[in-house]
Amino acid sequence: MENLSDISVVRNVLSKHGFNFSKALGQNFLINPSVCPRMAENCGADENTGVIEIGAGIGVLTAELAKRAKKVVSIELDTRLLPVLEETLSEFDNVEIVNADIMKTDLHALIKEKFQGMDVVVCANLPYYITSPIITMLLEEKLPIKAITVMIQKEAADRLSTPVGSRDSGAITVCTNYYAEVKHLFNVSRGSFMPPPNVDSTVIKLQIRPEPAVKVSDEKKFFRMVKAAFAQRRKTAVNSIASGMGLSKNQVAEALQKSGLDVNVRAEKLTMEELALLSENLS
Question: Whole-model pTM?
Fold first, then answer.
């Protein structure tokens, strides 16, 4: 196949198949030739590994993954890209394209069916508009995967990789760090895409922890409290949690005091350990 990082090649292939970019699907295809090899190298793909890719685009990252991994299964929502991918990935016999919505896919069943006896990682250039739901789903499903390497909007990456308890942390920061160690890999400029988006991107790697960062007796309650705490960032934790969980302010204040925390503290000031303790003390 010709160089899929060459704009003229990309335009010719897409034109041949009558393809037009969809803003609704957040389609921006990589044309920087250095990015996909770096992502594929960093994601942990090797001859014993299976890779789940989310959104194949025209197959630039898919091809780099296929060169390194035992098998690549790419979940692509846009049916218009199927004939494009059939052409661009024709040289690889270890690639399978699944036409499906990642948010509606039974990934436990897919991994069991497609990757018998292999370690599994996720590697993807995620659409900006659905980054948080996808990452949250991949983590909360507790899939048998080793790591998640994704390119996302730089602002979102900064929020995921900031320490829990710092000013920019949020509910997604807590969720991500609960399940995984977050590593910032490298930045990608907006000019690396066709068409170029209005923001820059960052590639991060989430190394799945063997055990969660903290122990809580009730995960659902813990995450419900976390989401409530960060839902109204201008308010104190007392007000946000009480409002979000349907509790009285006195109940929340008592739990904070029992946890040795300031009753006027804001959620973003609380560390992972403090949030876990607060959840345990919240009646």
Answer: 0.92
